[in-house]
Design brief:
139 residues, mainly beta, Metal Binding Protein, Guanine Nucleotide Exchange Factor, Chain A, 6% helix, globular, Yippee, zinc, Yippee/Mis18/Cereblon, Protein yippee-like
């Protein structure tokens, strides 16, 4: 019988997959998933910094596991279905967000705020501090 140099049909070709969908620039301070180190947000997207709120205001956000930060935009996160929840600041329609890499629930996205004083949160993201770590240039 002749020997073939082709691999058997049942062998699977292994390829290196991309770990994260998006990488944030190394020149900026960033936040990453504490569980898998996927990039989550640039420090410039932190609402308190972008809008001039005080540090006290920034730390007043509460997640289910403690303090949380509010961001304008995030990367490498998936979004579940929206549902109405009564939070400390009233009724909101929110969708849980999770790390696309390790699937850990990180916080939520504000889809709709029912009170006019809370409308600034619509389209913004809460990430709990328990699920993120500071990366790049925090020294």
């Amino acid at each position: 019988p002749e020997l073939s140099e082709e691999p058997p049909a049942e062998m699977v070709k292994m390829t290196k997959s991309k770990t994260f969908q998006a990488y944030l620039p190394n020149c900026h301070r960033t936040y990453s998933c504490i569980h898998c180190r996927a990039h989550l947000a640039n420090h410039d997207e932190l609402i308190s910094k972008a809008s001039g709120f005080t540090i006290f205001f920034m730390q007043s956000f509460q997640g289910s596991q403690g303090r949380a930060y509010l961001f304008n935009s995030v990367v490498n996160v998936g979004c579940g279905p929206a549902e109405e929840r009564v939070l400390l600041t009233g009724l909101h329609a929110v969708a849980d967000i999770y790390c696309e890499n390790c699937k850990t629930t990180l916080g939520w996205k504000y889809e709709h705020a029912f009170e006019s004083s809370q409308k600034y949160k619509e389209g913004k993201f809460i990430i709990e501090l328990a699920h993120m770590i500071k990366d790049n240039g925090w020294e």
